[in-house]
Amino acid sequence: MENPVEFVQWLRSVAPYIHAFRGKTFVVAFPGELVSAGALPVLAHDLSLLHALGIKVVVVYGSRPQVAEQLALRNVEGRFHNGIRVTDTAAMECAKEAAGELRLDIEAAFSQGLPNTPMSNAAIRVISGNFVTARPLGVIDGVDLELTGITRKVDAETIHSILAAGGVILLSPLGFSPTGEAFNLTMEDVAVSAAVALHADKLIFITETEMLRDLAGTEIRELSSHQAEAVLHANFLSPESAFYLRHCMKACNNGVERSHIVPFAMDGSAMLELFTHDGVGTMISHENLESLRPATIEDVGGIIKLIEPLEADGTLVKRGRELIEREINYFSVIEHDGVIFGCAALYPFPEDKMAEMACLTVNPEVQAQGDGERILKHMENRARASGITKLFVLTTRTAHWFIKRGFVPASVDALPKDRQRMYNYQRKSQVLVKTL
């Protein structure tokens, strides 16, 4: 080890993620292209490490190139309709053979255990079976898709019991009907259905696609499901990337907190996405933009009603209506049924790449529901989008809350010069800073 100090610092830096992820359920899905590229052994190393860290892992694999290979070997031409494979009897036999071979390859990869390798001392038990009930897609636009199906139900109860016992679940792109038929499914459909049924904390697609980029070529690191919908509507993504993004949106809109699209071309991309702040892929989260949004002039009355009690007891600095009206563009609010029950303001200092978050308030009647956390994350995202690298707050009563969320105490000298000149030494507010 060339630099033990750096190693220790790195290990400490990932500790918060390790603590946060322990006991969580992650659905990790990858296409057959990953296996064809020879990346399966390394992925097995990384997923076994997640398992060792106490994360409950469900693996879903695809088989498109392997099915195409089997069809070619039998001189059978694959048929598609609107990008969906028409699975006749011959194609179904190819799908079964491809899925079976891949299953054995994946189980073999998780069975590694040579000394001086990441799998040394690992004892991973991979469990697969008839956990997915499916039904036929039927006839679309006059075309019978035959044995092509869609997930109908995932046996979440059984899967949870296996995960609780320390097993890793392996789901294939095949499903079964109560009549005993097998159906050819898409890996993406199975992964989303499993993540939703299991109330998974994360759905991670490790894909053959490149990093998502906007029209200007800038990497897309994070999207709300609402923003993802706008990206799809703009129609600039490749068909493959758009396909993954649609499934991520579906997962988030049905209760999965976070979904990720991570290219497998980068070694260790899944680990980098999960255990580094910026990650190496695109994260999609569900955020109800109707309730968490930038403030408008119509919100001034609601903001005043919300902050007046805290101004009266000295928790917040008093602001008049005129000041709030002038600064309304700095505010964001949480609204429900037309009632403002949370707000915060972001004051940028662009030259210093810093911003002050002020007036973070949540109605006492709905506190302890995580809305303060939601507002904080929203303001952090606003700051990052503006090129801000450090966020600071001045507080007299709530320092502990901010420290638990990554802020660290600092001196007045750490503030931008313009903010130092406005600091009220009589109020003696604590200065807390967070690096974004």
TrEMBL record:
Organism: Pseudoduganella dura
Entry's EC annotation: 2.3.1.1
Similarity-based family: Belongs to the acetyltransferase family. ArgA subfamily.
Note: In bacteria which possess the bifunctional enzyme ornithine acetyltransferase/N-acetylglutamate synthase (ArgJ), ArgA fulfills an anaplerotic role.
Matches recorded under InterPro entries: AceGlu_kinase-like_sf, Acyl_CoA_acyltransferase, Asp/Glu/Uridylate_kinase, GNAT_dom, NAGS_kin, NH2A_AcTrfase
Database matches in Pfam families: AA_kinase, Acetyltransf_7
GO MF annotation list: L-glutamate N-acetyltransferase activity
Pathway: Amino-acid biosynthesis; L-arginine biosynthesis; N(2)-acetyl-L-ornithine from L-glutamate: step 1/4
Gene3D superfamilies: 3.40.630.30, Acetylglutamate kinase-like (3.40.1160.10)
Claim: Amino-acid biosynthesis is one of the keywords in the record: yes
Compartment(s) of residence: Cytoplasm
Top-level enzyme category: transferase
Origin: domain of life: Bacteria
Name of the featured protein: Amino-acid acetyltransferase
Catalytically driven reaction(s): L-glutamate + acetyl-CoA = N-acetyl-L-glutamate + CoA + H(+)
Gene, per the UniProt record: argA
N-acetyltransferase domain residues: 290-436
Keywords associated with the record: Acyltransferase, Amino-acid biosynthesis, Arginine biosynthesis, Cytoplasm, Transferase
GO cellular component, one term: cytoplasm
GO biological processes: L-arginine biosynthetic process
